[in-house]
Amino acid sequence: MFSGPVAAHAYYELALDGEPDLIVALGPNHTGYGSALAIMNEGSWRTPLGDVEVDSETASKIVREAKIIDVDESAHRLEHSIEVQLPFLQYLYDSRFKIVPICFLMQDMQSAREVGQAISKTLVNKNAVIIASSDMTHYEPQDRAMKNDTMALKAVEAMDEAKFYSTVESRGITACGYGPIVALITAAKASGAKEAKLLCYNTSGDVTGDYSSVVGYAAVSFTK
Predict the structure, then answer these.
(1) Which of 57, 155, 160, 209 is the most exposed place for a label (fewest CB within 10 A)?
(2) Nearest Cα to 150, choosing from 131, 130, 175, 133?
């Protein structure tokens, strides 16, 4: 109810762009279970809208390219950051796409960049989209959340992953999926992206009317 209206802006843009065969979905690990960087390379994910198959071949290639990612289903079992994106995708495309889910417990700059570079190399000549799932600031007053998130999002729009990472660290921004965002920016640039555009930014306060402690949400599109 909070993030959905913001995410919808990104999925509207995606719907206008055609139908992908593959979604590489990156998200943080909130639970602490499993490997520090964990991928699934077999099976399927089930939602009330049906099953989505994991792309085993692509997942295995990413593991070979990155060398720091483990195949570990346990990191995904109780994690919500990737699964909440699937109903949007299934609404658009039914289950006519495959996914590669990668869960980040370790979110340092070097590791995130390495994952992003591996994804970019693996997706050459594939009809694929990369999605990074993350909230922005957590549980701070509206004014402070907006100020900090705006600074971080300016770095995202500049496709400057180093500036984004340093802004998150120096400002103490509590974005849960900063590693996935760094990996996405890295992969986007390596794949020839020319523009990153902020489509929408809102907070939970815009839904509840309580601006004393909010969570920030943003939708950003990367296009070639």
Answers:
(1) 209
(2) 175
Tokens 């839904």 identify what position?
207
Q: Which two tokens stand for residue 56?
A: 């085993």
Residue 121 to residues 62, 108, 154, 185, 192, Cα–Cα distance (Å): 8, 20, 26, 14, 12
Question: 101 with 39: CB under 8 angstroms?
Answer: yes
Do residues 102 and 62 touch, judged by C-beta distance below 8 A? yes
Quote the DSSP letter at residue 42: S
Query: What's the rounded Cα separation, in Å, for the pair 11 and 31?
Result: 27
19 and 96 Cβ atoms separated by less than 8 Å:
yes
Q: What is the pLDDT of residue 77?
A: 94
Question: Tens of pLDDT along 125-141?
Answer: 999 999 999 999 999 99
- The pTM (predicted TM-score) of the whole model is 0.96
Q: What is the DSSP code string of 22-44?
A: EEEEEEE-SS--S-SEEE--SSE
Low-confidence ranges of the chain (pLDDT < 50): none
Q: What is the dihedral of CA 109, 103, 151, 145, to 10 degrees?
A: -140
CATH assignment, 4-223: 3.40.830.10
Side chain identity, residue 145: A
With contact defined as beta carbons under 8 Å apart, do 148 and 99 qualify? no
Instruction: Measure the CA–CA gap between 182 and 162, rounded to whole angstroms.
Output: 8
Rg of the chain (C-alpha set) = 16
